[in-house]
Every structure is written in C-alpha cells, then in structure tokens.
Design goal:
Blueprint lengths: L8 E4 L6 E2 L1 H14 L7 H7 L4 H13 L5 H18 L5 E2 L3 H10 L4 E4 L4 H10 L8 E3 L12 H10 L6 E5 L2 H9 L3 E5 L16 E3 L3 H8 L2
Parallel strand pairs: 1-4, 1-6, 4-5, 6-7, 7-8
Antiparallel strand pairs: 2-3
Helix pairs in contact: 1-4, 3-4, 5-9
Bound molecules: 2-phosphoglycolic acid and magnesium ion.
C-alpha cells in the first residue's frame, strides 16, 4: 500500500466524493427539460453526464432529449433555467456519503489544511457545503468557474500548491472521477480514487489512481495511522 507520509494538505472533489448530489442534479435537469416540453432523463442517465460542470451536463441532457446536437445559442438560453432550478433543489434529495463528516473532521483536527476542488459552479458549492455542515473545514473552495480552467486541467491543483506554498508531492487529491485522476497526474500530485461515485460508468481503477478506496473511512486509515 502506498505510503502518504509526505502529504501536508488535501484537496477533495465534491460531487460523487463527499456528496451524492445526482438526485438534485436530475431533478433540476428534468424541471428544465419539462419546461422545454422535452422527454425527461433517468437518474442513471444524469449520473453518467455529471463530471464536467453544469453546462456540459445540460448539453448532454439536451443532446439526448432532442436526439441531435444542441446549438451554443440554445444551450446559453437554457442555462439560466437549469441554474434557477438547481439553486432551488440543491440539497433537497442529496446526501453525504457514509463516514465523510467524521473523517473530514478528524483530518482537520490532525492539522491537514483542506480544500474543495469541484467542477460544480462556485455559487452552488458553498451553500451545498453549508447545508451539510462542511463549510468550515475548508481553507479554499474552488468551483468549476473559479479559475480559467477546470479539471481535468491541473490548474486548480497548481493554484493550491501556490496558495499553500507546498510542493506537488505534499498535496493529495481525492475524487471519484477520471477528471480528478487526470488533473492530479498532470500536476504530479498523488490521488486516491473512490469507487462509489460517478465516473461515466467506468471503474475508477481504470484511470490508475495512486490508491483506490471503497469507503471514505479508509482515507482516515491511510492518513491518520502512519
Ligand atoms: O459538477 C460536476 O460536473 C462535477 O462535480 P465534481 O467535480 O465535484 O465531481
Ligand atoms: Mg466528482
């Protein structure tokens, strides 16, 4: 098993890692599709479309519902409706994954500086963290629109390295998607892949993270018992 003894700070993905947010993303997607009199999507379909931010989710949903490529104009017209509905649903049907709160709390107490690196728009990220009692644990919260590029680009992680003044072998990324693994690898950062989240239907081990965990509690075991 990989030794994480160098690690000084940790960056967490949000959707599919800390919070199972697909039920509310699906509710907002379907409220938007219904308003356009388009056929609705299943929760499984929405789960397979999450990972590259709200705009790409809606593009995939519209392409599927219309059975053709949505134009950029049509997508731009639709986005405010999706954003409105997602802001309304946000945490209504979402839930924390098991052992998240207790593990994050223990890591913070052990002295690790923590950050969120999500592709979710920033305006939803902080309210969602607050709704689940997580907001106070993180020194930095980066949404998909906080910087010029989102994951799988390494920019959010290299930004954190600069902010925290640490080297790449001192940061650990934890996520459920190939976008998390690719961003970490491009930044030369170790990465734990979780098996329970959303990864376009593909097992996370295919992306070859540094380590694979099935349960969030295992992260505590890896980092708190050195
Ligand atoms: O909103 C998304 O598409 C994915 O969000 P995540 O980066 O927190 O998994
Ligand atoms: Mg994720």
């Amino acid at each position: 098993m990989t030794n994480f003894k160098n690690i000084k700070a940790i960056a967490f993905d949000l959707d599919g890692t800390l919070i199972d947010s697909v039920p509310d993303l699906a509710a907002a997607t379907n409220a938007t599709l219904a308003e356009l009199s388009l056929p609705l999507a299943t929760e499984d379909q929405v789960r397979s479309w999450v990972g590259n931010g709200a705009k790409t989710l809606m593009r995939r949903a519209l392409n599927n519902a219309m059975n053709s490529e949505v134009s950029d104009e049509q997508l731009a017209e639709t986005m405010p409706r999706f954003m409105h509905y997602y802001g309304e649903f946000l945490e209504k049907h979402s839930r924390l994954y098991p052992n998240v709160l207790v593990t994050i709390s223990a890591l913070k107490q052990a002295g690790y500086p923590l950050a969120i690196v999500t592709n979710k728009p920033y305006e939803f990220t902080v309210p969602l963290l607050k709704a689940f009692g997580l907001a106070d644990f993180f020194d930095h919260v980066l949404g998909g629109d906080s910087l010029a590029k989102m994951k799988p680009d390494p920019l959010p992680l290299t930004h954190l390295l600069e902010q925290w003044k640490i080297s790449s072998d001192e940061l650990l990324m934890i996520g459920d998607s190939k976008n998390d693994i690719l961003a970490a690898k491009s930044a030369n950062v170790a990465v734990i892949g979780l098996t329970y989240g959303y990864n376009y239907g593909e097992h996370i081990s295919v992306s070859e993270p540094t380590a694979v965990c099935d349960d969030f509690a295992q992260i505590g075991q890896l980092l708190l018992t050195k």
